[in-house]
Write a structure and sequence with these properties.
heterodimer, A: 13 helices, B: about 300 residues, mainly alpha, 15 helices, elongated
Amino acid sequence: MRYFTRKVTLFLGTLWAAVTLNFAIPRLMPGSPVQLTLARLAASGQVVTDATRRAIEIQLGLPHTSILSQYFQYLINTAELHFGMTYSLQDESVKQAIAAAAPWTLVLVGTTTVIAFIVGTLLGVVAGWRRQSRMDSMVTVSSTFFSAFPPFWFGLLLLYFLGFQYHLFPLTGGYSPGATPHLSLSFIADASYHSVLPATTLVITSLAGWVLGMRNNMINTLGEDYVVFAEANGLKSRTIALLYVARNALLPNVTSFGLVLGAVIGGSVLVESIFGYPGVGSLLLQAVNNRDYPLMQAIFLMITVSMLVTIFLVDLLYGVLDPRVRQ
Amino acid sequence: MSIDNAEHAPASLPGTRRQSGAPAIPGSLIFFGRSVATLWGNKKARFGMAILAFFLVVAIFAPLLSPHSPTASNFPPYRNPDARNWFGTTGNGQDVFSQMVYGTRVSMLVGFGSGLLATVIALAIGLVAGFRPGIVDDVLSFTTNLALVLPGLPLMIVLAAYLRSNSVWMILLVIGFTGWATGARVMRSQATTLRTRDFVLAATLSGEKLFRIVFREILPNMVSLAAASFFGAATAAVIAAASLEFLGLGNPNTVSWGSILYWAENDNALLTGQWILVFIPGLAIALLALSFILINFGIDALSNPRLRER
C-alpha cells in the first residue's frame, strides 16, 4: 500500500510541477510576453481583436495584476479547462480545437506504442537468448541503425516511394477528402488506410528502444544463478529463455515505457506534420507557425499531462506485476 | 575503463605523471589518449570513431572540400545530380553538395555543444544530489524525474517558439537545457554508491575537503558515465536539431542539414522527384547519430562486463 501512496503523491507533485512550468515558461522569457506577443502579431499582419488580446492575456498574464493572482487564476482556468479562444482557427475555442485533434493522435500513438512494444520485446528476447548469433547481430545492428534515423526522414522516404512513386498509400491527410469523420466501418477503414504510413514510421523509429533494452535485460538475467540451476537440471534452452528469463527481463523494460512514450509523442509531432495527419502534433505546429500562443500552451499542457497519466498508470501496473517494488 | 578498475585511478594518476618526469604531456591528455586506445579495441566503437573522424575532417576542411559556394545561387534550380552538382541544386539554384559539406559544421557544433552542455548540467546535478542526501537530493531528484517525463520535442518546440532568436546557438542551448535528465539520474546513483565506498571514507578521514574529494576522488570514477552521457546527449541533439530546423524553427538561411531538409520540404522536392535532397541530409544525420551510438556501445561494453563482446 505504501508503494501506491508514494506513487500517487509523486504523480500529484509532478502534475503540479508540470502545470506550474507551463505557467512559468512564457513568463520567464525575456520581455513582457503579452506585449511581445501582441507586437509580433501586429508585425505579422494579423488583426489584433479584443478576443485575441483577451485570449493571450488569459494564458500569458493580465498586465496589471500580481504574478500570484495570475497564477491562481491560471490554476482555476486550467482546472475548468478554460483556455480561451484560438486566433489561428476561426470561431473555435482552444478546447474544441484540441478535442477534435486528440482522438487522432491517441489512436495513432496508442496503436503504434502497443505494436512497437510487442514486436520490439519479442525481437529483444530472441536477440538476447541467441546472443552473438547471426539473428542477434541482424536485429541489434538494424535496430541501432533505425534508432539513428530522424523519424521524419524515414516518413518522408516512405511517403515518396510507397505513396508518390507506387501510389500504394495516400499522400496526405487522415481520411479521404470530402469524407466527414464519423463512426462507421467504411470511415474507420478509410482512416486506417491513411494511417498505415505514419504508423509504420512511428513503429520502426521507436522499435529500437524496446529491442535494445530487452536484449540487455535478457543478457543480464541469463547470468543469474537460477538460470545456471535450470540448465543443470537439464531444462531445454528454449524453456529457460521464454518461461524463466524473458518473464523476469520484461519487468525492467516496462520502466522504460515513459522514455519510449516520449519518443513516440515527439516523433508523432514530426510524422503528423509530414503526412498532414489531423492530430495534436499538426495542431501544435500550426499554432507555432501562426504564433497562436494560447493554443500552443494548451497543447503542450495536454501532451504533458497525458504523458504523466500514462506513466503513472504503468507505474501502478508495475507495482502489481512485481511485488518486490512494493516493499 | 571498468568501474572497478577505475577506483585505483586517483592513486595511480599522480604516480604516472611523476614517472614520466617532465610535465611535457599533461595527465589528462595521457588519460584521453589511453581511453581512445581502449575504445579502439572495441569493434563497434572503432566503426563509430571512424565515421566521426570522417565528419570531423569534413567539418574542419569544409572550405577546401566544397567545390562551390554553399549560398550563392548561380546554378539552374531544381537540377538532378550531375557531374557539376553531385547532389543536384536547390530551388534557389544552390549547390547541395557544398551545402552538405558546410552543413556538417553546424551539426557537429550542435551535437558536441549540446552534448557537452547537457553532460555538465547532468554531472553537476548528479554529483550534488549524490553527495547531499536529504532535502537537496529529494528536490534535485524530483526535478530530474520531472525533466525526464516532460515530452522532449514538444518542449523544445515551445521554447524555440518563444525565443525566436533563430540562431544555431539558440537551438544548441534549448537542446542542451532539455537533454540532461537521463544522464543526471545515472550519475546521481553512481555518486550515491561511490560516496559510501572505503576510498572516499579514507579521503574524508584524512581530512580532505569535500570539494577536493568530489573533484579528485569521485570525478575520475565517473568518466565513463560522463562519456556515455555525453554521446547519448549528442545523439539526441543531432536528431533534435535536424527536427527543429526541418520544422522551420531554426534559421532557414543558415546552411545546415536540417535547413536543406526544410527547403526540400518547402519546395516540394519529393513531388518533383528530387528525393536525393531529402535522402542525403537524412542519411548524413543518421550516420553521425549512429557514430555516437556505436561509440557509446563501446563505452557500455567496457564498463558493463556482462555486455562485453568476446
